[in-house]
Specification:
Strand order of the largest sheet: 3-4-5-6-10-9-8-7
Number of helices: 5
Radius of gyration: 17 Å
Helix content: 25-40%
Largest sheet: 8 strands, antiparallel
Number of strands: 10
Strand content: 25-35%
Number of domains: 2
Amino acid sequence: MTLSPMIKKILIGSITLTALSVGIIGYAHTKSGRFLLPYIPGMGSSCPVGASLPLDKLDQTKDQILLKLLEGNPSTSNLSFLQFDLSKTTKTEVLAWIKEKNLQHDIQEKKNQIRVSDIKPSDIPGNALFQSNINEITFIFSSKQDLISVIINKTFTQASEISTYVQARKAEFVQRYAGVKAFSEKGNASVESFANKLAQQTIEYRFANARVSLTAYQFKSDQYNLNEYIQRPSVIQ
């Protein structure tokens, strides 16, 4: 995919902003956004993080970074995402779920990741997360084959669609994490708030044993991107 000089300039300039780079870098790791990696300083043509590390060393490196961000009280209830409990789900169980839902049509498995792409609402009926198409779900595992992170990437074509979705997810977070104030929150997720290109709507919760984040933004006039994830250290805190 060829980018115009103006778009390159905007992206490279914008990527230096920490808050913005989180969303752009997240999108750049999806199948549809991978063309952006060469334009992100330090990324090259693929993500270099942990590329040459043994999995146990990769666990240690990720934990060192993540543990500096975590705060508050630990709770196993904070580790649930989709139907998975990150305190005990294994790679074998994730693969069984993928087979049960017949999602093998577009799956990539390498090193410590399983990436499932092009999931339709009909693939998993009755789940609010899947009421619109999901570009990718990425499952990340520790060296012991335990599930430590789930990342969802979604693309919308209408501001009203992503606005409705983000507001519903925020309401679910408030209910799930009752009594816990979001670590950070930006934007009201209204349709109007997505009119500004590259302006992010974010909400993040931090616990002693997990980090939960949702980022949504307009990437271009007919494309709105959403990245949602939960991650925990490789050792349960």
